[in-house]
């Protein structure tokens, strides 16, 4: 099953989206605040206190999840394209993902072969946000453990990145819906991760593909335009 995500334009109503995202963050924070306030009452038994504490923490975690998936994306960007090496960006993100893998018994296999640099032009934070969101989904699809394989190569003027998991996979229906704002099948999902990825990869002139089969796992391919060798990147002063 192959599905290319073209939904980005349709859902480019950033203003509306920002409003609904603020709402999505405020809800769990309001809940957390309520439970913290309740904890201030006198004469609460320890079981009740513990329940309030758990609910408050869940509210904060919920708000935090939305910020994690969306943060770099919503940042007002100065849009300073720089020369990036995809291998380095992948290495940084793999460092963040490693602890998640350890926690869920996922083996992280990193295969970047013997190519030299994989130069692309873009914003490092944004590219890392994309790779992180994709890898997090991969890890989350393997709650019982599995293998996360990350590889990259050059091909026909493009840099190809492959992020493969041996997780629960997706059916055709799900493949059609991923990337739509707030589409999630997870109890604690935000449904923002792939929307952010779709928009950012498209803005970089790249493309995003998913192949998946239920019960077998998923391969996500990110295609980015390779920086042409004879084209200098205009050096920008550090911000
Ligand atoms: P969230 O992770 O918060 O649910 P995302 O936008 O990151 O939101 O993903 C949307 C949905 O796409 C997920 O809830 C899941 O159903 C599906 N999905 C994404 N990546 C994978 C994957 N690697 N394996 C299985 N399902 C996936
Ligand atoms: Mg996600």
Summarize the structure in words.
- By secondary structure, the chain is α+β, with helices and mostly antiparallel strands.
- 45% of the residues lie in helices and 21% in strands.
- It has 6 helices and 8 strands.
- The chain has a 6-stranded mixed β-sheet.
- β7 and β8 form a beta hairpin.
- The protein binds adenosine-5'-diphosphate and magnesium ion.
- The site of magnesium ion (MG) has 5 residues, from α4.
- Residues 69, 133, 136-137, 193 line the site of magnesium ion.
**What does the main sheet amount to?**
6 strands, mixed
Q: Helices and strands, in N-to-C order?
A: EHHEHEEHEEHHEE
Low-confidence stretches: 1-11
Helix-residue proportion: 40-55%
Strand content: 15-25%
> Which outline best applies?
globular
Number of helices: 6
Distance between the termini: 43 Å
Mean pLDDT: 87
Question: Which helices and strands appear, and what pairs or packs with what?
Answer:
Layout (H helix, E strand, L loop, with lengths): L1 E3 L9 H26 L6 H29 L7 E4 H19 L1 E6 L7 E4 L1 H17 L5 E10 L2 E8 L6 H6 L15 H11 L3 E7 L3 E9 L14
Parallel strand pairs: 3-5
Antiparallel strand pairs: 1-7, 2-4, 5-6, 6-8, 7-8
The structure holds adenosine-5'-diphosphate and magnesium ion.
Provide the descriptors you would attach to this structure in a database record.
binds adenosine-5'-diphosphate, 239 residues, two-stranded antiparallel sheet, disordered N terminus, globular, alpha+beta, six-stranded mixed beta sheet, binds magnesium ion
């Amino acid at each position: 099953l192959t599905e290319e995500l073209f939904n980005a334009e349709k859902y480019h109503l950033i203003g509306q989206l920002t409003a609904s995202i603020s709402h999505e963050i405020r809800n769990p924070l309001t809940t957390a605040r309520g439970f913290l306030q309740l904890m201030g009452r006198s004469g609460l038994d320890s079981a009740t206190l513990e329940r309030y504490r758990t609910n408050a923490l869940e509210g904060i975690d919920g708000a935090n999840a939305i910020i994690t998936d969306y943060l770099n994306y919503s940042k007002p960007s100065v849009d300073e394209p720089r020369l990036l090496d995809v291998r380095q960006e992948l290495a940084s993100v793999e460092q963040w993902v490693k602890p998640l893998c350890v926690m869920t018994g996922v083996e992280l296999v990193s295969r970047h072969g013997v190519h030299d640099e994989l130069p692309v032009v873009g914003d490092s934070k944004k590219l890392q946000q994309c790779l992180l969101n994709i890898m997090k989904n991969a890890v989350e699809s393997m709650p019982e453990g599995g293998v996360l394989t990350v590889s990259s190569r050059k091909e026909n003027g493009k840099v190809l990145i492959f992020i493969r998991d041996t997780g629960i996979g997706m059916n055709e229906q799900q493949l059609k819906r991923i990337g739509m704002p707030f589409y999630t099948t997870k109890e604690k999902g935000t449904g923002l991760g792939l929307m952010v990825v779709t928009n950012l990869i498209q803005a970089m002139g790249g493309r995003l593909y998913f192949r998946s089969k239920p019960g077998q796992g998923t391969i996500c391919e990110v295609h980015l335009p390779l920086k042409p060798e004879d084209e200098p990147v205009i050096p920008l002063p550090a911000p």
